[in-house]
């Protein structure tokens, strides 16, 4: 069994410059609302199939922030990540919303 390696990075602002040193098994995105989908798409090349990405603030009923053209963060994830087959989603009805994405091959 391979050793467990945890690389915890606390970043501020958009992380489009972040380039992990290895594949990523778990990512938690809670940056600026407009940055989360682009960040996820940027990190995609390091996310192994089966990796989990948690995206915070995705519950439209709780005032999920509009990110572009009237879309909520959850709608943008559906359009740009789920519909193209990059991941499948489970939406958790936490007070502000949490979407868990499983990265597909």
Walk me through the structure:
The chain has 105 residues and is of the alpha+beta class. It has helices at 36-43, 73-82, and strands spanning 24-29, 47-56, 66-68, 71-72, 87-92, 98-103. It is 17% helix and 31% strand.
What key phrases describe this protein's structure?
single chain, 105 residues, alpha+beta, four-stranded mixed sheet, two-stranded antiparallel ribbon, 2 helices, 31% strand, globular
Task: Write a concise synopsis of the structure shown.
It contains 2 helices and 6 strands, in the order βαβββαββ. The chain is an alpha+beta fold and 105 residues long.
Give the number of DSSP strands: 6
Please state the overall shape, judged from the principal axes of the Cα atoms. globular
- What percentage of residues falls in helices of 4 or more residues? 10-25%
Mean pLDDT: 87
Strand sequence of the main sheet, in spatial order? 1-2-6-5
Provide the β-strand percentage band: 25-35%
Compile the SSE list and pairings.
Elements: E1 24-29, H1 36-43, E2 47-56, E3 66-68, E4 71-72, H2 73-82, E5 87-92, E6 98-103
Parallel strand pairs: 1-2
Antiparallel strand pairs: 2-6, 3-4, 5-6
């Amino acid at each position: 069994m391979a050793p467990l390696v945890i690389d915890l990075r606390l970043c501020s602002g958009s992380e489009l410059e972040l380039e992990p040193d290895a594949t990523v098994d778990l990512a938690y995105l809670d940056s600026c609302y407009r940055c989360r989908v682009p960040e996820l798409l940027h990190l995609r090349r390091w996310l192994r199939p089966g990796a989990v990405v948690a995206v915070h603030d995705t519950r439209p009923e709780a005032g999920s922030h509009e990110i572009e053209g009237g879309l909520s963060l959850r709608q943008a994830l559906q359009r740009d990540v789920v519909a193209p087959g990059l991941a499948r989603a489970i939406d958790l009805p936490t007070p502000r919303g949490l979407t868990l994405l499983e990265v597909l091959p």
